[in-house]
Structure formats: C-alpha cells, structure tokens
Amino acid sequence: MKIFIFLFTILWINSAIKAQSAVCDYDIQYFWTNGFINSNKSYYSCYLKTINASSIDKINGQHVASHSDDDVTYFFIEKGNSIKTFSSIFCQKFKNLEVIRTSDADIHSIDGNTLENCKNLDILDLAGTKIRYLPKDLLIKNTKLSQIWFRDSPLATLPENLLISQFNLKILHLKGNQINFLPAKIFHPLIQLEALYLQHNKLQSINPEWFKSLQALKWLFLNDNQIAAIPAKSFESLPALTELYLYKNKIKSLTSNSFDGLHNLKILNLYGNEITELPRNVFSRLSNLQELSLFNNKLTVVHAASFGIHNNLVDIYLGSNRINQIEKSLIDKIAVNFINMEGNICSRDKLKGIDNIKAGLKTCFENHDNKIQELLTSLVKVVRAYICGKPVQGVGNIVGGQHVARGNFPWVTALVTPSGDYFCGGTLVSNRKVVTVAHCIQDKHDSSPKMAGDIITQLGVYDLKRVVEVGRVSYAVQRINVHPDWNTLTEPFDADLAVLVLDREVTFNEFIHPICLAGVHVATVATGVVVGYGKSEDETKIHENIPKIIATPIHTNEHCFLKNSNLVKISSERTFCGGSGTGVGVCRGDSGSGLFVTDGSAYYLRGIVSSSIIGGRYGCDVDSYSVFTDVAKYVDWINGVSTDRFD
C-alpha cells in the first residue's frame, strides 16, 4: 500500500493553461471528488484563460493534430475572462462536452439555448458566477446530467420547470446563493437524486412539498439559512435519508412529528439554533439515529419522553445550552457512549477539577451513579488531551498504508480552500498555531502567495468527503507567518516552513489536541510515522479521503544523497530525508503533513513533508526518498511566532 504527498501544483492544470488564450490540447484523468459520487474517466479538455469575448469564435480543439472539436469533452472557463454571457457558441463548437465548469468567472447571464447542443452533458458546474436568473428552458435537452452545481452565485430562486427533464440527476448543489423562495414542485422530477445542497441561502421556511418525490435522497443540507420552524412531517417523503443538517438556522420550535418518516436517519444536526424545548416523542421514531447534535441552543431541561429506546444512538451533543437537569430515565433508554454537556448550568465547573466535575455530573444526572462513573472515566481522558502529544485514543500496532482510527493522531489538520477543497496537510502545535510548509502558501516560482482568507483549517477532521462531521471544527486563519528564509526563486527547499495563527483559541477534546515539538532527546529516534491524505495506489483518487499511516525511516541527508544525487539540489542543512527507498513512499496529497516520533510517553513533530523527486506513474519517484523540514532546528522560531491579534 502506497501513501504519497502532493508536492507541486497539479500537472495537468499547469499544462492546460500555459497559453494566454483557449487551450484545447490536453488529455486529463478527471476525478470528481467534491461530491458524494465520483467519476473516473479520461477527458480531452479545453481551458479558457484571459480570453476576450471577441475571440470566442476562434476557439477550437485542433491544437493537437490528433484531436478535433468533436473530441473535446471537458470545458473550463477560468477567472479572468472577459466573457459576460455564456452563449450557445460553446456547445455548437463542442457538441460532445460531458463536463462544463466555471471558477469565479465574471459571467452575468446565460442564454436559454446555451446547452441545447450538449446532449451528452454529465456534469454542469457553474460556480462563482454573477448569474442572478436561470432561463426556464436551460436544461430541457440535457437529460443525461448526473450532477448540477449552481453554487456561490446570487440566485434568488429557480424557475418552476428548470429541472423538469432531470430524471437521472444524482447531485444538486445550490450552496451559497441568495435563494429565499423555491416553487413547491421544483424537485419533483428528481426521482434519483441522492444529495441536495441548499445551505448558505436565505430560506425562511420549509415546504414539505419540495421533497415529495425524493425517494432516493440520502443527504440533505439546509444549514446556514433563516429557517424558524420545522413543520410536522416535513421530511416524511424521504425514506432513504441518512444525514440531515439543519444547524445555524433560527429554529425556535419543533413538533412531535417534525422528523416522522426518517427511519434510516443516522445523523441529525440542529446545532446553533434557538430551540427551547424538546416535544414529547420528537426523536422517538428515529430508530437508526447514531449522532444527535443540539449544541448551542436554549434548552433548560432534557426529558426522557422526547426519546424512544435508542440502541444505536451513541453520540449526543448538548453543550452550550442552559440545561440544569437531565432526567435519569433518559440514560436507561439510550446506548450513549458520549454526552457533551460542556457549558451548561449543571456542568459549568466540569474542567476545573475532577471533584467539581463529579459534583456537576450529579446535578445533571440526578445522582445516577453508574452513568456518572462512566462519564467521569471519559472526562479524565479529555483532561489528558490537554497534555501535548498524548492522544486520548490509544495507537495500536502501526501497519504501513492502513487507514488510521479516528482520534489516533488528533493534531492532524487539513488545509482547505473556502469552498472546501483539500490542498495541504498541517499539524496543530498549540491552541492557536498550525504548522505546515511554506510552499503550500507560496510554491517555488509562484508570484501569488495565498492570503489568510484563502485558507480554512479543519481540526478534528477524519473523512474529507463528508461535508459535516461530528468533532470537526473549522477555524479561519488570522495571520500567515512564512519563515523569512523561504526563497521561491532558488532550488533548495530550505526553511520550507509556515505557521498559521488561527482566528481564535482551539477547544481541545478527544479529536483535537496538539502534538509536542521535537527536542534534542528525540533527534536520534530512527523511525517515525507520516499520517495524511496522500495519494495511494488507487488511481481513481487525487488524494485519500481518510488519512493513512506509513512507517518512515529517518536518514541523514548524506545517506540519501548516495542513493539519489538529485536530492542534493532540493535539500539543505535544515532538512533531513526519510523513506525506505523500496517503492513505498510519499508523493501527492500530503505536503505539509507531519512526521511524528515518540519517546514512549508522547508524540513529537519531528519533520514536515517538504519535497520529493518528480517521476513515476503517480507523479513522483516512490523508489527514492523524500525531503522533510527538520522541525527540531526551528523550534525557537515556531514558539516565537506571536498570536497577538495586533502583532
């Protein structure tokens, strides 16, 4: 099993946009990983970059003699074009398009006949446009669509018959618009729809009629709207639904029938609403529910009558309410393993000492002694989490290339774009700092470094393909500190190091806490582990969705130079090399990920994945070694980075 590290900007993107015009000359292997359905096939691609509207009629797919317009199946309009209207000329020229994408393009309108000649279209992703209105006949001829993404645009509604021909659609993504109204039967044709994204809009109410035909729907995202109530039987037409996200709305009330019909629901997230009371039996019919979040509402009492007998419910999040009592009979009715009560009246002192914790729990659970002792045991583990380098979950035997268990390495951090796309790894080293490599911020020969607003750090993350995950918390970056010696114009990867200062203090728990920085006493440890989302031997993935672990021998630079002299030019006195040199190595997907060592009592950040030799079928030479930034030589600088908001 191979784990690799993403070291450079994706090759096919660089190659495809090398000219300041339309480029239609590159075969790509395209992987759709932003949604729940992956597409894995080769496309002949056409990219538009800084093209003038007057030059559209000159675009063609004949840049390479072996291809023609009819061969173009992937079409991408980038930011920076002057095209204001998405017209029919594209589908007239490239009739066999299967994928059309935009990325923050300055497109203000789209013609009703724009897509009528693209009858083989499979994926339509119009992201970040300025389109406010969609013509009602826009999709009438595109009956093969499996994914439609109208996201991060200023749409206020959808025409009533826009989706009337979309019987094969699996994903509909409407996140980040300004939708405040939807026609009652807008989704009725979508009999195969599996994922519906409506989050970050301006919906004020739910119309149960929307969902009448969505028998196949599994994932429904209604979070970050302005919904005030959940009417009775709102979701009773959704028998296949497994995950329902309603967090960060303005929900004040539920009815006992709000969630009727959701027999297969596993995750229900109501975090960040204004719920004051749980009606009798409101959750009793959710027999397969596993995770329930009521965090940050206005509850004062939790009654057993709100729940049925739940043998599957293992995680309940009740923190940051106003709870002063939980009926003890509730504890007998559910198979809960974890109850988060932090920030409530009955547990406000819970982290000030074990004695106070026990007193608080007695108040919360009415002296239900067995449950108190069980929770005390788990809370002691949480207190341990405040000591660096000691995971709450024990780490078993390390088997290279295997997925790690959740919580084994709770300092592992994913760096993603504001739209949620993973691009690098990182490591949590304090309650405000994440370390990564500088080339994730500004790569060699790149004149445009990332700004703080371009990066979101995800802590407690495990499965990247899940949009929402219990225990995951996203933090914005207040300030980026790239090491002053990092030089993008020279070849060595010296000082390939950056510290991201987070916008607020991190709350530690069993899934989130920091690792220790390496000191002299672990400098001689011969083997560490790399944990991250690097590309594996599975060629259908750009990166892994669940982190993998690989044992990594640590060597001196000189040892590796003898094996591969090409490493000399990318190394320095502040790097070391690692790997086995036997075909198991690091490559795409994990730049910035840490190499961890242990002295038997705690884990330490010994190195950070920096660079490797390009080549091989995966884009790097896994028979060679990789270069790591030597953290032990930068400890003083990392510790010296200020977290002062005004520094």
UniProtKB/TrEMBL annotation:
Gene3D superfamilies xrefs: Ribonuclease Inhibitor, Trypsin-like serine proteases
SMART domains for the chain: LRR_SD22 (SM00365), LRR_TYP (SM00369), Tryp_SPc (SM00020)
Superkingdom per UniProt: Eukaryota
Entry's Gene Ontology molecular function annotations: serine-type endopeptidase activity
Database matches in InterPro entries: Leu-rich_rpt, Leu-rich_rpt_typical-subtyp, LRR_dom_sf, LRR_TM_domain-containing, Peptidase_S1_PA, Peptidase_S1_PA_chymotrypsin, Peptidase_S1A, Trypsin_dom
Keyword terms of this UniProt record: Disulfide bond, Leucine-rich repeat, Repeat, Signal
Peptidase S1 domain segment(s): 398-643
Annotated signal sequence range: 1-19
GO BP terms, alphabetized: proteolysis
GO cellular component: plasma membrane
Keyword Disulfide bond: yes
Family statement drawn from the similarity comment of this UniProt entry: Belongs to the peptidase S1 family. CLIP subfamily.
Name this polypeptide is given: Peptidase S1 domain-containing protein
Species for this entry: Chironomus riparius
